[in-house]
Each structure stands twice: as C-alpha cells, then as structure tokens.
Amino acid sequence: MRELAEALRPLGFERTGGRHFVHTECPFTLEFPPWPLAVGREVVQEWSQREVAYGVIEMLNPTQCVMDRLAAFYFWRDRQALDQAVAVARAHRVDQDQIRGWSEAEGRLEAFHEFVRSLENS
Predict the structure, then answer these.
(1) What is the per-residue pLDDT across 67-91, written as a single tens digit (0 to 9) for each?
(2) What is the largest CA-CA distance in the chain?
(3) Structural domain tally of the chain?
(4) Do residues 68 and 60 make contact, with C-beta atoms less than 8 angstroms apart?
(5) Domain range holding 25?
(6) Which residue(s) pair with 38 in the sheet?
(7) Per-residue pLDDT tens for 26-48?
(8) Does one domain contain both 80 and 68?
C-alpha cells in the first residue's frame, strides 16, 4: 500500500487510513480493497465504468454498491450502512431481485426485508 500512496501523492491524493485515498478537488474517495473483490461471499465478476478526462474508472454498479452497504448492515449491524444502501437505491435504478437473491444466499433474508421496509418508508 505504501507504493500506491507514493504513486497517488503527486496526483494530489492523500491516504486517510487503511486503503482509502481522498483529493480536495475530487468528490470520490478511492478505495483499493483486497483482491479478489467480493460483496459478502459473492466475487464481483462485472464492473461499471465511468469515463473521465484521464481515462476510465471501474467501479461497482449501483446494485453492487447497495449489496456492499447491506453486507455491512447484515454482518456488523451498521445502521448507517443501511441508510447508505437506502440512499443509493433511491437515487439509482437497482435490481431488487438480484439483491434479494444475494441476501438469501448470504442467509440474511429477514434483514433484506428490513431494507425493503426502510426503502418504502423513506
């Protein structure tokens, strides 16, 4: 991670701890998670892409982002992560059937229903 920090510093990114980097003029936080990237026990196979002036950024799509936030809610009871999952699902089109299937495979179907109730009540 030290080499990554050294490569990003000249671009204006500073490490905020762990695997996260921020830039004062960039609205996005960069995260470099361990490989292979997984959401719960599901390894991510496809990526969303966003073209920027310097190239293409590969990132989770909105459905995967919701699943990532729900994983924090499911396994660590992180209520803020539930709120984040709801916020993403309200702002973007997500595949609730995929999220439900993933939640069931993770053994967290009851917690998924709490997510759906939160989404409906927001």
Answers:
(1) 999 999 999 999 999 999 999 999 9
(2) 47
(3) 2
(4) yes
(5) 2-59
(6) 43
(7) 998 898 888 899 999 999 999 89
(8) yes
